Predict the structure of Phospholipid/glycerol acyltransferase domain-containing protein.
Amino acid sequence: MAPPSKSQQRTPAIIYDSFLWLWTVIIDLFFREIHPRSTWRIPRTGPVIFVAAPHANQFVDPLILMRVVRADAKRRIAILIAAKSMKRKFIGWAAGLMQSVPVGRALDDKKPAEGRIWQPDPEGKPFKILGEGVDFTNGDFVKGGLLVLPTVNNVAANAEIAEVVGQTEIRLKKAFKGDVAMRQLSAGDGGDETNDMTNGEFKEKPLRGTKFQVAPHVDQGAVYDAVFQRLHEGGCIGIFPEGGSHDRTELLPLKPGLAIMALGALEKDPECGVTIVPVGMNYFHAHKFRSRCVIEFGPPISIDPELVEQYRSGNKRDPVGKVLEEVTEALKAVTLQAPDYETLMLVQTVRRLYNPQGKRLPLPMIIELQRRFLLGFEKYKDDDRVKKIKKGVMEYHKKLMQLNIRDHQLSYAKYPWWKVIGVFFFRAFKLAGLALASGPGVVLFSPVFVGGKLISIRKAREALAASTVKIQARDVIATWKILVSLALAPTLMIIYTAIGTYWTYRNRVGGRVPEWIPLWFVTIFQAPLYLFACYWALRFGEIGMDIFKSLRPLFLLLFPSSSNTLVRLREQRSALQEQITEIVNDLGPELFPDFDNQRILSDAHHAPQSPSRSRPTTPSHTRDGSNDVDALRFTPASPTSPKPLTRKRTDSNELPRNESFGNINNFPIFATRPGTPNRSRSRTNSSDGFKLKGFTALTSKKKDDESEKRGLEAVSRDLKAAMRERGKRRSKSGWEFERDDGSEGEDEGKKAV
């Protein structure tokens, strides 16, 4: 084993863990729930490259990845971070303590260039670029640098320079791609002097070519050396291979750096055993406070030795391309890939409508269901039935937006008028109580809430102006909300503590503080008081906002005209549910060969294709090292006459959990989110409403009921005896056992008995 690197010597593990714990507390406050999935796939030893995408939450994504890997796999990750971010005082200092590796990005240093560029022969010589009013030999244009075209529809094409031929000619390494880039570089079609292209449409007064920017060549040799050293020491590297954060619904093309790191490490030490673990970062409204996240780990990828030999022999392009292709496919299996926001919104609405038995699904199953619907829409988008459903769902969603209500709130439309009045005033009373309880904290820390909102919006505008891929720059909003809160909240607490201490010193707060209480105690007592007031405002404010949002549909139901609208909308929803369920039953077996066995939600009116097929049960995994798909197996399909579920189902007439006081007593300090799992564990108890599959039924040829009963009792005694013996052996040896979902945990043999 190689000696520890300098970065590891400067940053002890306790500092890494302490800072990660601090960030974990902050992340838990911002997110309602962070759900890890398939963390058992993380190798416990050996060098690992974690490849995470999509990069939808600037500095928050690395923190979530580090937190989950540290908690579940007991491993520490060195994240590759942009060198531009390392120059920020606080972020650079914190990233250094977390053992991050700075990476220079050419596009961070791009600058406007003089003159215009154009392409004389796009078909015959696509690599040839000519310039007007520009000198390519002035030193700004070098081999490995980039030519960057103006941004159009939030996308800016760029190409790498292969050679500077002369003052007015450059040869590219790869040609520009896309119709927009071709039109920008056309020899006789362009734009005016101020703006070459706007929203994909050229203006009048066409000129030859387009204005452009130039980015320098960045030598990444030091970065690769640092990565190779850590991997050869058996450490872990985390990389976001899209090259930067963004708010798009699809993956951006992966940068070749991750493939070069894996192949280069194996080239230097073929026995190091580097593996690549794909990680899907799946958010529900990533930029919003109290949103949700599912982080999913795919099967580890091992590099084929033949690719390493090709890379060593000098043929680097082919093995790098094959590794990138394999990683891209692996990331698609753990992420949601929608071509645009409209399709993503459509799939999310269909997923909410498709729930034949009204079951409450855990987050991983919601992600999996949306992923399957995206596959279905992509394959059958030209089917007339799919087009009809798409049109109906879009109309339904539009009406919801016009009424400013949510899909689940339509359940109020079936309430009788007297219950609507009672629920409305009851919730209004609860909202008033929450407002009084959280009022002091809201007033004291309103600068944090307002400042975080305003500054994050301003930073998003700055990021959007400097980016070539962002749409609304929502990926930076959550980061700046957290950073502003970290700066303003402690500052306000210090100011309020100083004011309180001075007031006590002057006149004992108008004589309200007894003389026997020392001044130092007043100072120390105020710190936890203000901290609790801030937390109280956050937690009760969250519950209050949920209740406030539920008042509008109840208010509409108090008036006959709007009440009829909600009733009709509910009927439209029921019709859409039937259509969606029907088309899923028709097209599902075509898209998924083992549809009934791999089904997430069963339909009581849809018989499986084969009696032996069953719905998915608790996820089970194989550990054979192959790139197998994490199969979901569930309980048998529901019979025509549904039996009582093993778990108590919430009655449809009851209030949702997040709109009631009922959940306050279930979590510490009035929390409303379910606790984030800090280790991999069986998800048997996480699937609300699913009937668990028991032992295989024992069939007997005997017709005598008494003999059959005695046989079952004998089997039961043998099972209990075996479990007791197994528990005794484990308690003596201290072994760990493997759970049914592949995760490891401490011995529970005694509890099982």
The longest strand covers residues 275-284. Residues 110-187+208-215 form a domain with the Thrombin, subunit H fold (CATH 2.40.10). Residues 1-10, 189-205, 610-704, 732-753 have pLDDT under 50 and may be disordered.
